[in-house]
Amino acid sequence: MKNTKTFEVWYASIKEAESTMSSDVDTIMTSLETLARELAEELSSPEFDDLNEIESKGNTKVWQWIWWMPKARKAQAKVNKIKLNITDMASAAADAKNTDQQEVLDKKVTNAKNDVKDLQKMVDDKFSVKGKLVQRALHNEKIIGQIAAIKRATGLEDDPEKIATYKDKMAELQQKYKDDLEAIEELEPSKADIKAEKDRKTKEDNDKKIAKDKQDALDAQENETPEQKAEREKTEKIEAAQITIDATKKIHDDIPSDDESKKADKLKAKIEFHKAQLTKANLEDDEEAKTGFTQEIADATKELKDLDPPAPTEDELATAQTAINDTRAKYEDPALDGEDKKNDKIKANINYLKAQLVMATLKNNTDDKTSLTGEIETETAKLTPEPTPEPTPEPTPVSDSLVIRATAAGLNELATEIESKFDWQVTEGTVLYSKYNEMIRLSEHNITLNESRYQNLSIKDRFARLM
Fold it and tell me: Is this model's pTM higher than 0.85 or not?
């Protein structure tokens, strides 16, 4: 009876060991299948086509560094992990308790080794054409896998001679690993090049997003009800008003409050700011806000009228008069009376009118400024075109024109906002065009004032810039 019990205990332990081994092998096989599937999906991902397209426009060396090298390392790391799992499965086969189980496991090991060869070839084919830097990184990652496999095998080996052989191989691989790292460091691109490529990709991604958002908005509008359309248009007007508010507030805040020479500019900017706020209040039917902003505008307008512009100095007037005399003399020069000098005569007259316009500006003579400006436009229209004019360029879309002007005026956020709109949204006559144009015009006006009237520029310099 005792012997029977002993046999049963022994037999149960054998079955338990076989069950445990079978469970471990199944876990390894599941892990192998998961890793292989993930790797195959990554290597066939559409992202590779997108990256290839972007890379073709940029610095190949940088792209190897920031995109292909990390992807190659990641892919090879998965292959390395699969190989380690196969090593564990082979060890389990060697420790199998019976021949049948060992044969089953050996067959699984053989199949897994064939599969990993296919995966390794797929990785090599995908990244071997991406340049020396990527090839180095891939080779380096393979060495990491070999070192890990040797460490795993050493832990499973009892034979001292084989362990010694493993150690020699380990030292050789570690030296190769070090050599690879040094070569990779020598090929590393500059930080400036890396930043430039990342910025370029970010811009392209943003451009794609803007285009997609535009298309999505267009698709959504096709299915709008009249109520939805009205609500959308109202929202767009409110958003445009808020953009104007932000821009005019910045212009107002940027003008120093303690500079008496900029007081008029500050008041004008304040008026434009409150006008923008009033526009939004009207759209939102906010009666209290409308009343408040209307009063603010009236107060600032009155204060602006009470300001007297500074009188021009004698030197400024004298310089302006000299310019008038000189340009008049050139205009009245008999040498310009011939028919072949007609254009030159007109240009001389335009310069003479501009010189008078400078004087009218100094004296703050509004009527003369208006009259002279009109005369300059009239004379300019008389100029005969050149015999062989340059080809007429394609008309610049209104949105591009607004973007260029906004950028020149330092309104970068506004330029980005305009760029995101459809051309039909910012054509002349639309609400958005009027708001954007008024905002840019105000900024351009203030820049002109800052650069001329209240700066220490000589009248000669002002006249030269006008001419």
Answer: no
